[in-house]
Structures are given as structure tokens and as C-alpha cells.
Amino acid sequence: MEITCKGCNKRYTIRDDKIPAQGSAYLSCPQCGEKIEIRAPETFPPDPPPASDAQQHVTDDPEFFEPGIRTALVYCPQEEARLEANKALKQLNFRVREIKTAADIASRFRYNTFDLVLLFQNGPDPEQPLREIHHFINTLEPERRKKVFVVYFHLSGNRYNTLQAFSYSVDMTLNPLDLGSLVDLLPKALKQKEFRYKIIEECRAELAAAAL
Asked: Where do the H-state alpha helices sit in the chain?
């Protein structure tokens, strides 16, 4: 039996003796981590009517992660770059989910606050879905936004230029050529942000104590 992952469209072949005679079985996609349901062919419900472009990637099914699990969202129209990013994030023990529209990220953030978001600009100018996703992130409430580390890939990205990152309202800008170094770059950048916020919180606590 052939099955397709809804998260990354990867196809797998399952031996017939592994297919449950009744009910369902589940496995995690080795490529993206999405949960795949396996049922006997005759028990599958009929296909739902086609969704519109704005709806087809949205899921309202709640997904919850175990405490301590690091989570990441990836928006990347280029398949090769997306696969490379997913591979790097899995090496860093992130649970990865892909998004394609603002509705996707809104649905994901309805139940979870993701630790990391990777945004890839495809070409010299941001495409409409990217602009809408970026806008959603920038409208998060401050206490929630500071928990999310946002990396923006574009052709002029410069990881050493903090002013550029500030101008994009993200935590780091990278060039697509930096993708191969993501496993090394991300842990350092995340620790730096954690350190900065630790200092801020300590200062706030001292000011609050002095005001008493």
C-alpha cells in the first residue's frame, strides 16, 4: 500500500501485513515528523471536496507537544532549501512543521508558541504569502513574540548585521548560502538571545525590588 505524508508530500510504501485490519495505526514521517494515519483501503472515508487555496493548508486539529520539546515552523517555497532546513533542524532536535500561508501559522499558533520560525524569501522581493506570515509574527503580543526566534533568509541577508535584522523585525537575517551552516549558527544565536533576555529580566526584578 502506498501512503503520502500530508506534511511534506513524501510517498512511502507499507507492506500489506503492516496494515491494520480494523481501526487505524499511526507513524511519524521520517522526513518532516508529521503524523501519518494508516488504515485498510476500504475503510478510508471518501475524499472531501477540494479546498480553496486559502484553506487547503489550514488545520484546526489541535496539536500539543510534550514539555521540553523544541518546535519550529518553516516557510520555504524552494523544495531543496526546505529539505535542507528541515534536516538541519532535526539534527538540532526540533520538531518541524511546514507552513505555506498566514492561515497556516495562525492555526499553528492557536495551540502552541513555536520556539523558532524560518522564513525564506524567494527572489529579490517578498511574495504575498511571506508578507502575510511576517505580518502575523509582528502582530503577536510582546510577551509571546519574545519567546519566538525568527530567522529571515534573503539574498542580501547578513548574519553579522544586527541593524538589518532589526529593520526586518526579526532576530537574525541570513543569506541562503548560510543554510549549510545552520546547525552551527542557530545554537549560538539562541543562546545569545536567551542571555540578553536574562539580563533584561534581572534588571526588571532589581527595579521592582527597589520600588518596594
From this structure: 79-91, 102-111, 128-138, 142-145, 162-167, 182-211
